[in-house]
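We modelled the chain as a single entity of 494 amino acids. Its sequence is:
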Amino acid sequence: MATINKKEHVVILGAGPAGLATGHELSVSGVKVSVIDRNDFVGGLCNTNVYKGYKFDLGGHRWFTKNEDLNNWFRRLMGSEVVWVERISRIYYDGGYYSYPISILNVIKNTGIPTIIHAGVTYLISALQYSVFNKPIMNMKDAYVAQFGGKLYDMFFRRYSEKVWGLPCEKLSSDWVSQRSAGLSIWTVIQESLLKTKSDNESLIEEFMYPRDGYVRIPERMAEDIVAQNGNEAVKLDSTVTKIKYNGPNDFEVIYADKDGGETSIAATTVVSTIPLGVLPRIMEPACDQAVIDAAKGLSFRALITVNVILKKERVSIDTWLYIQDEDILFGRLHEPKNWSPAMVPDQSTTSLVLECFCTKDDHIWSMTDEEVGQRCVEDLEKKLKFIDSSEVIDFTCVRTLQAYPVYDLEYADKIATINEFLSGFEGLHIVGRGGTHRYNNADHSIEMGLLLGRKILGYEVDHMDVNTESEYHEIKTSRDLKRDYYVIEEECN
């Protein structure tokens, strides 16, 4: 086993957006960092796969944040690579298209007055139950019904949520709902679409920034800067962390194996982990007790198969995202990369689609072959959605991703608390990112967490764990949003 001894050394486990953001903030401030990742690429869930010249993100990742200082940081990082994308999101429900966020006028147009009356009655019932009689919100279904009533919940939230998470909404925590739809109640829907007023809400997202050549360019740019500051060995790929030994405060030994099984030990004064929270405690020494092991094993993830289809067709849809509610259609969401950036396709007379199939490792979807998954998705596009003719399909490829979506079951918070109590005993160990904290972050949340953690390690009084805990809906800007810019800028480092 080769041993590398370095003093004052931050070792980051995982080259996804959060880990790289931490490393980037530390690197531009002169701190030595090493990043270790089991994949042969940087970016984690923010990867962009290239197939026959076509570029496919692992699902559509947009850059949007209500934190303007983070936008400033992003613009500095990406420079001329940024393009602006008009947001058009729709829901496909029972053969019709509905705008998302929901518009009452659009619902009336598609379904008629009787449906709206039904929706209004069920909302009044839920308002009585949850507001007047204080019925407790126990799960995801309760949270959605309290905001929208039973009819709109069943139309626009139940099917898709259960498709994503693989569980009935009654068995899922309401925590996820607070940031994905809180503030977007039936009253804000009425304000936006009928009364044409926005109260204190400046705007829903109408456009967003995006890297011209795919979302992976954000982690690639961060990695480039880390290597420039720390040398070519600063980002170690094809390397799996197998053990973390704690010798005392700010004194760690991180052991990792390369793809051939050869092990290396590296000394660290600080360890930043983005690897799944359910894995971390089980590779720590001193070892955890059985209660922590049980909690760690109890944290679950949904997996993802993205089917990337190349088409002899100029365009399929106008959407940036299309959410597919129907249970008999294999995929739950699709996007057309060309609608985000023309650079995502090499031939403008053609287009491509990314179809997201939500699943769990070893379930019936995951157990299908790539050919079976791809053919089924093509059939759904042609026969059920009527989007394409099978003769227009040039080719398709599948990408399988484990640990894509942290599941918020009814017990997840207690499990996380048990794990975090154990990890708090290791001075100099930090967790960050979607998998690292078992928190359903958007990519911008994970990057912001990473940047703040970098500043925390530098000695600033900030708390990276505050990111993505606000109760306001992510996609509404308000006059209360934070306006600051404290991330290190390039000029400060020269």
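As a brief sanity check on the tokenised model: The chain has three domains: 2-46+68-76+214-297+410-493, 100-202, 301-406. Residues 1-6, 198-202, 476-485, 490-494 have pLDDT under 50 and may be disordered.
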